[in-house]
Design goal:
alpha/beta, Rossmann fold, 2 domains, 12 helices, binds adenosine-5'-diphosphate, binds magnesium ion
Length: 265
């Protein structure tokens, strides 16, 4: 390749915004020559390299703006620790067909069983697949909607929560809402109904949502829309947060019954 041609390719690639190609085309050409690559394969390689880099960049940026508390994946989830949870059902959800169908997922169970982790893992997978995502706790969502209402920007803030293909609302039920707040949640859920997916996590059963939302009629109206198209996963198992402590306690009591020194508490 002549120096002149190389300079022109670099200049054109830069003007076209193909930043990766600008830096790598010489090396790619060398690879193509060494592998005696055909024209089609070479073009395929160029486009794939550029797209791969852009996708990686988009994915990283989207994750940064997603509000996710961490980026754990399902591969890190120890299904053996939660034998009552149907692993196949969770892996089915990871196919993300529920997002295409605009249906919802509810993850219910006591603290520490992995509700947030599964919600995060599904959101990370969705983001990787190119869906727009956003993660918020219910508490934060309501606080921001209230703040927006006070300054006349309620609709703008509501639209922010309507935009993503997948909205995760974590920790429904930790703090009770008043009627005005429950009404905001109703507006959100009814506007997203059949238009965009939500993943909800809650430590409360649906029967308890009336008291969480401070109003049985509103709770019923919200649940009616939320559950019409919804996979519900109840996780009734031990807390992963307490796993290590439980092991310590078990070791301590084993040591005591065997007459050994009890472990320090
Ligand atoms: P929850 O939302 O149900 O209270 P989390 O998802 O926050 O629980 O889980 C608590 C902690 O334990 C997190 O750090 C999470 O990543 C981890 N965790 C929970 N369940 C598992 C599991 N089965 N395998 C691996 N890590 C887990
Ligand atoms: Mg949680």
């Amino acid at each position: 390749m002549s120096e002149l041609t190389a300079q022109r390719i670099a200049a054109h690639a830069t003007r076209l915004g193909l930043t990766h190609l600008t830096d790598t085309f010489s090396e790619l050409v060398a690879r193509a020559e060494a592998g005696q690559m055909g024209y089609l394969d070479f073009l395929d390689l160029l486009l794939e390299e550029e797209l791969g880099l852009r996708e990686g960049r988009r994915f990283r940026n989207a994750l940064k703006l997603s509000g996710l508390p961490h980026h754990k994946t399902l591969e890190q989830f120890d299904f053996a620790f939660q034998p009552d949870l149907d692993a196949r059902k969770v892996r089915d959800l990871a196919s993300l067909s529920f997002i295409g169908a605009k249906s919802n997922v509810a993850l219910l169970g006591p603290p520490g069983v992995g509700k947030t982790m599964i919600a995060v893992a599904l959101a990370v997978a969705a983001c990787q697949a190119g869906f727009s995502i956003y993660f918020t706790s219910l508490d934060d969502l309501v606080r921001r909607l209230r703040g927006a209402e006070a300054t006349g920007r309620f609709n703008r803030q509501l639209n922010f929560y309507l935009r993503p293909s997948l909205l995760v609302v974590d920790e429904v039920g930790y703090l009770p809402l008043d009627r005005a707040e429950a009404n905001m949640v109703f507006q959100l859920v009814s506007r997203r109904y059949e238009r965009g997916s939500m993943i909800i996590t809650s430590n409360k059963s649906f029967a308890e949502w009336g008291s969480v939302l401070g109003d049985d009629v509103l709770a019923t109206a919200i649940l009616d829309r939320l559950l019409h198209h919804c996979d519900v996963l109840s996780i009734n198992g031990p807390s992963y947060r307490l796993k290590d402590r439980m092991n310590l306690i078990a070791a301590a009591s084993a040591a005591t019954t065997q007459g050994g020194e009890p472990l320090p508490s």
